[in-house]
Amino acid sequence: MSEFSANAGKILEIGQLLGLLRSGKEMAQNFQDGTSYYKGCWGVEGDDAFANAVVPQVEKMVEGLTLAVGAVDQVVHGVVEALGGDALAVKKPQDAALEDIQQQGGVRR
């Protein structure tokens, strides 16, 4: 005999990932703000060998971080949407079955 069971409530808790994602976006923004605060402290590109070496590295780090956070954001939102749809697909028939049972006087919620 095959059996299918799922806890729709637990599946819907995946939405908590969005809160974690917001925290990650805030950290990325803090990093960007922090690097912009120090912009110019390492010299001016073109006139300074140190600045010529450091500025492109910092810009590359900020760009990479922005791209990475954006990619993670898209993946997490996709997972949350997919699992949310799965949870509703499970919950709807469960609720309908419980309602049918209740109408027939078998189980009370």
SSE topology:
Layout: H1 8-12, H2 16-37, H3 49-103
Helix pairs in contact: 2-3
- Strand segment count: 0
Detail the poorly predicted runs: none
Structural class: mainly alpha
The main pleated sheet reads as: none
How many helices? The count is: 3
Domain tally:
1
What would the principal axes of the Cα set say about the shape? rod-shaped
Give an overview in words.
With 109 residues, this protein is mostly helical. The chain has one domain. The protein is 75% helix and 0% strand. The chain has 3 helices and no strands. 1% of the residues are buried.
Q: What keywords describe this structure?
A:
109 residues; mainly alpha
Summarize the structure.
This protein is mostly helical and 109 residues long. 75% of the residues lie in helices and 0% in strands.
